[in-house]
Amino acid sequence: MKTRQVWILILTVTVLALAACAPGEAPAGTPAEASSCPTTTAEVKLLTNTTDAYCLLYPAEYTANTSGLVVINPIAAPGDMPGEAWLDVEVQDAAGKTAAQTVDEAIASLGEGFNITHFEVDVDGEQAVVVDGLPGVDSNRQVFIVHDGRLYDLIFMPWFPNPVEPTALENLYTIVMDSFHFVPAE
């Protein structure tokens, strides 16, 4: 009888030890996803918006304003002073639609006569749709992403792609797209 109790005790301790060593979720209150944000370097700065649940990198020589409208601009001035590269991140309820459905509806609502192109990419594990040619205040490239019931619309302006020499905006686009990460919302 004692041998059976010893084996049960050994088995119980073994199971508990294995459970303690197994990888698991971060404890409650630990910003596990936030720690996955990219790291600031001499070339790039980190912008974290926990209200809208994202972080991203942008060129260090630019400035960022996170008061509702995010504008990344090489001119350090209040408001939306003109510059050579802007990023406007707009976040709203996705209304149960995917990024592709949102883009299809936007294009269909315009009717004929627009030269709009779009293609799919992956942004932090989510399907995103990149759209060129949607009418706006300025020429733009928009990236639509749906994550956790929210629609993220990243608007890069003014979008005049240059196949010979990358522009400041194309550099900004590349950095943001490579670093964009979702974080837990506050």
Describe, in plain words, how this protein is organized in 3D.
The protein is built from three helices and ten strands; from the N terminus they run H-E-E-E-E-E-H-E-E-E-E-H-E. By secondary structure, it is of the alpha+beta class. The protein has a single domain (33-182), classed as Mog1/PsbP, alpha/beta/alpha sandwich (Protein Transport Mog1p, Chain A). Strands 5-9-8-7-6 form a five-stranded antiparallel β-sheet, with helices on both faces. Strand 6 and strand 7 form a beta hairpin.
Summary?
The protein is of the alpha+beta class and 186 residues long. It is built from 3 helices and 10 strands; from the N terminus they run αβββββαββββαβ. The chain has a single domain (33-182), classed as 3-Layer(aba) Sandwich (Protein Transport Mog1p, Chain A), CATH 3.40.1000.
The outline comes out as globular
Q: How many domains comprise the coordinates?
A: 1
Give the CA-CA distance, first to last residue.
Answer: 56 Å
The percentage helix is 10-25%
- The main sheet orders its strands as 5-9-8-7-6
Q: Output the radius of gyration.
A: 23 Å
Report the biggest beta sheet as strand number plus sense, adding barrel if it closes: 5 strands, antiparallel
| Percent range for β-strand residues | 25-35%
Kindly state the number of beta strands.
10
CATH class categorisation: Alpha Beta
> Could you give me the name of the CATH homologous superfamily?
Mog1/PsbP, alpha/beta/alpha sandwich
In CATH terms, what is the architecture?
3-Layer(aba) Sandwich
Distinct helical segment count? 3
Low-confidence blocks of residues: 1-34
